[in-house]
């Protein structure tokens, strides 16, 4: 068996720690660095206990050693504000950057939809869109690959506890980025995204509704099959991804009602919105790892 | 109760909240007709947008007959003295919508969040306030939390730049003493220059009464809608409130007979069905459910054969919040399956 591809996680918060727990199980990725900025961070302590090298000096703290340590993939789970600089630094050391922040300086990746395209145009920074995008764009694509979709709309309802201060400070970024990716990756001519935050206790599991308006009358059988196949694809990395109801056909409207339950690695199970981000990021890394192992891709090559 | 000489700013909702009851299909001509009538009656502030605010146009909430831009342009161009406001729900509308509304000349931006989620409004309130607009923080579904918790959220909005904070009874659930405790505490805890507002739904027939209580407790702005045209059993019927305020000697600045005429001749004739407390709107007020869910639940009953009252009660039990309209069809499908209807 080929050697695992070594990786670093930047940001030892909830997302970074959940990602670490998933990556630790991966057959293709070996997390070896956790990068933080706070020496008292519990996430750094946890990573250290798990045997990772850690630094509280930010990416600069890892930089001198990362090439020697063979790090080829980095995940950024910090914030959009520092992402560009983090990405520039790790790219300079020959590593690919997978961006979980909303910075979106690289192409979007929604693994079951456009992984082939992302791999076919070699790049050194890929962006994971948004949690709502990861949960819904596969479904928009499942409809648009059957027939043309004039309008795709997604409504993501998430528990208040699972929405961090970064998202809250710039919630427009979520609606704008998600709507854009519903178009560019989902294949709808016009995209719309809505996010609703619900504070109920116990917290609700992430829910997503996807409405597509098709140009022609929907081919019900073909859409059902396409949706089923796409749900199975997403379930390969998010087992708790479920089609609760639908597809509902009403004229040219196709509606799907989803629930996304997380694995509960570090984040609670209701936070499917966060789980699907970390799972999709790892999935993306694994795809690249296979390419690196096969000698088809090198993050170091320009 | 003594409201003699109290100054109250009334704010009409029939061209925004009323859009829910009209499935967002009010025509430009109807908007202009009603707005000019209100203007002539002395209404100081009129809200105009999709029922779910700027950017509400969607499958989920309904596509309107015209864009927000078209509605705002038409109304702003037609009124002489009245100022126009626009609603914005972060998560649905964005600062781009806000800029558009400001460019068209709205006077007031009201940024609405669920009562526990004020921190999603920072960028919108901040921008509106920087633009020098009358900036309102609009806390919805305030029956779901205690007065002390409302104050915490109100302070956030105040810190972002809101010059007025609304306590909104989106479900028409609050009882008079609950309105009193909420408004009194807000009045006591917020900056003295911050205005307090109250927005009611008439689902328990308490719109007028609760508005009076709110004024007495320190609210200076009161929402209502002419002929009650609004979600659920409608908002506080403004012409009724004006008549009562008149008799109590409050200072509201509205011509009673003119606003009565607008209600009778311009608003009532455009209603798709009478705005009244029917079984379903009463359920909203009784079970604490967001008022604009009403027509969605009725439609789900028609389509799936599940009782709309049962749907609404279940939505209340699950503590759904404003904006979760997509839950209704999903839930109706679950219930229909359980009942063997599909």
Structural write-up:
The complex is a heterodimer of chains A (302) and B (342). Chain A contains 10 helices and 11 strands. By secondary structure, chain A is α/β, with parallel strands linked by helices. Chain A folds into 2 domains: 139 residues, NAD(P)-binding Rossmann-like Domain (Rossmann fold, 3-Layer(aba) Sandwich), CATH 3.40.50.720; 139 residues, 2-Layer Sandwich (Dihydrodipicolinate Reductase, domain 2). In chain A, the strands form 2 sheets. In chain A, strands 3-2-1-4-5-6 form a 6-stranded parallel β-sheet, sandwiched between helices. A 5-stranded mixed β-sheet of chain A has the order 8-7-9-11-10. In chain A, helix 1 links the parallel strand 1 and strand 2. The longest helix of chain A has 22 residues. The model of chain A has no long low-confidence stretch (mean pLDDT 95). Chain B has 342 residues and is an alpha/beta fold. Chain B has 2 domains: 262 residues, Aldolase class I (TIM Barrel), CATH 3.20.20; 60 residues, Helicase, Ruva Protein, domain 3 (Orthogonal Bundle). In chain B, 45% of the residues lie in helices and 12% in strands. Chain B has an 8-stranded parallel barrel, surrounded by 6 helices. In chain B, helix 6 crosses helix 7, helix 7 runs parallel beside helix 8 and helix 11 runs parallel beside helix 13. The radius of gyration of chain B is 19 Å and the shape is globular. The interface between A and B is medium-sized, with 34 and 30 residues.
């Amino acid at each position: 068996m080929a050697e695992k591809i070594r990786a670093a996680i930047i940001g030892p918060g909830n997302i970074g720690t959940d990602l670490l727990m998933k990556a630790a199980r991966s057959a293709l990725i070996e997390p070896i660095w956790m990068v933080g900025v706070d020496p008292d961070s519990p996430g750094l302590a946890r990573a250290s206990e798990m045997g990772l090298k850690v630094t509280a000096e930010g990416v600069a703290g890892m930089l001198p050693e990362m090439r020697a340590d063979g790090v080829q993939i980095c995940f950024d789970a910090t914030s959009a504000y520092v992402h560009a600089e983090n990405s520039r630094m790790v790219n300079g050391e020959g590593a690919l950057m997978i961006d979980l922040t909303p910075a979106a300086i690289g192409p979007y990746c929604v693994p079951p939809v456009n992984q082939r395209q992302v791999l076919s145009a070699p790049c050194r920074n890929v962006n994971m869109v948004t949690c709502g995008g990861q949960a819904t764009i596969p479904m928009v694509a499942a409809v648009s690959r059957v027939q043309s979709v004039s309008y795709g709309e997604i409504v993501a309802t998430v528990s208040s506890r699972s929405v961090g201060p970064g998202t809250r400070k710039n919630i427009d970024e979520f609606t704008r980025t998600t709507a854009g990716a519903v178009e560019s990756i989902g294949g709808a001519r016009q995209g719309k995204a809505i996010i609703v935050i619900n504070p109920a206790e116990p917290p609700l599991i992430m829910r997503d509704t996807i409405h597509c308006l098709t140009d022609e009358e929907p081919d019900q059988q073909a859409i059902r099959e396409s949706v089923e196949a796409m749900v199975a694809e997403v379930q390969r990395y998010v087992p708790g991804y479920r089609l609760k109801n639908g597809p509902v056909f009403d004229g040219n409207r196709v509606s799907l009602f989803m629930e996304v339950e997380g694995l509960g690695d570090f984040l609670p199970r209701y936070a499917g919105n966060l789980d699907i981000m970390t799972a999709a990021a790892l999935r993306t890394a694994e795809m690249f790892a296979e390419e690196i192992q096969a000698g088809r891709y090198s993050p170091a090559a320009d | 109760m003594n409201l003699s000489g109290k100054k109250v700013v009334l704010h009409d909702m029939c061209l925004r909240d009323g859009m829910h009851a009209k499935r967002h299909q009010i025509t430009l001509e109807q908007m202009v007709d009603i707005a000019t009538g209100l203007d002539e009656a002395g209404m100081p502030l009129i809200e105009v947008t999709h029922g779910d605010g700027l950017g509400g146009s969607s499958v989920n909430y309904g596509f309107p007959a015209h864009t927000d831009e078209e509605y705002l342009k038409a109304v702003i161009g037609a009124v002489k003295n009245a100022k126009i406001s626009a609603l914005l729900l972060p998560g649905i509308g964005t600062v781009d919508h806000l800029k558009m509304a400001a460019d068209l000349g709205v006077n007031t931006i009201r940024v609405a969040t669920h009562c526990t989620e004020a921190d999603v409004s920072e960028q919108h309130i901040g921008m509106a306030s920087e633009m020098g607009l009358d900036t309102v923080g609009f806390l919805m579904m305030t029956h779901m939390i205690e007065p002390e918790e409302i104050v915490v959220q109100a302070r956030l909005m105040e810190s972002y730049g809101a010059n007025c904070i609304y306590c909104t009874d989106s479900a028409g659930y609050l009882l008079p003493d609950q309105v009193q405790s909420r408004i009194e505490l807000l009045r006591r805890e917020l900056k003295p220059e911050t205005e307090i507002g109250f927005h009611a739904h008439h689902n328990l027939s308490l719109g007028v009464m609760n508005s009076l209580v709110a004024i007495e407790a320190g609210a200076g702005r009161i929402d209502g809608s002419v002929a009650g045209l609004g979600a659920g059993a409608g908002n506080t019927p403004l012409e009724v409130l004006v008549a009562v305020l008149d008799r109590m000697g409050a200072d509201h600045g509205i011509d009673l007979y003119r606003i009565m005429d607008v209600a009778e001749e311009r608003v009532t004739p455009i209603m798709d069905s009478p705005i009244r407390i029917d079984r379903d709107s009463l359920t909203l007020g009784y079970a604490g459910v967001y008022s604009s869910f009403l027509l969605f639940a009725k439609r789900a009953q028609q389509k799936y054969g599940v009782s709309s009252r049962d749907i609404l009660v279940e939505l209340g039990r699950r503590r759904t919040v404003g904006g979760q309209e997509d839950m209704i069809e999903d839930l109706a499908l679950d219930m229909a399956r359980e009942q063997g209807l599909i």
